[in-house]
Amino acid sequence: MDRSIESRVNHEVENWLRWITRWRPATHRGRSRLCRQCFGSPIIASAGLAVDVPHVVQHALSMRMKIVIDASVDEYTELNLPMLAHELNLSERRESAQAYRPAEGLDPEFRGLDLDPQPAADAPYLFTFSELADQQPPEPQPAPRRSVKPDVNEPLAPAEPLPPLSPEEKAILKAEMQLADDFATQVGIRVCAQLTRERPRLLAAIAQFVEPQVQALLADLESTLDSPLWPRNP
Fold first, then answer.
1. Angle at 115 between CA 59 and CA 49, to 5 degrees
2. What is the pLDDT of residue 232?
3. Average pLDDT of the chain, as a whole number
4. How far apart are CA 31 and CA 113, in angstroms?
5. pTM of the predicted model, to two decimals?
6. Rounded to an integer, what distance in angstroms lies between the CA atom of residue 41 and that of residue 62?
């Protein structure tokens, strides 16, 4: 199976093209702040979706490209950056010990979006998903430093503190993090280049499935607007 960056981009583009045929405009209120994943994104610009495209449509493609970049960086890290891979494995095991993670397991088009809709004044929440996700485990208790590196398959208790790093380990970890960042940048450039080649198909899907629904919404909004300055129908 071809696992090149370009083939992965093509695969996720095909998934997005299938999803866009089922897209419908949301009925809930819009976002209260800009999406860091999409606003000013070179991925969205390379795909040609930076102007006059609903955010949800942009976000679905952006998150699918993030899957491509993250998977490539993870593979590179596991193969070439042992210190960083070990630290990431420890962190992942600690996070997996948390009781509840509502953002886990979502489809790509929903990842990175607000967990909760905007609250209504007459319908306060008893609790929100964000509050549940922000709950912290109990304060960790001091534990003796272990000289043997823990087994990566051994469960890590939420309250167990991570062992401190030596200055030499910190220097190695910092260098490996820079290598991972550089590789992620290279992958991102290749993703953007491939999206530029896919732009005609992406724009054709927008014109066929998105634009008619947006125009219908605008026409419905225009029909419901009223102004004292406008002539009323007889």
1. 10
2. 57
3. 79
4. 9
5. 0.72
6. 8
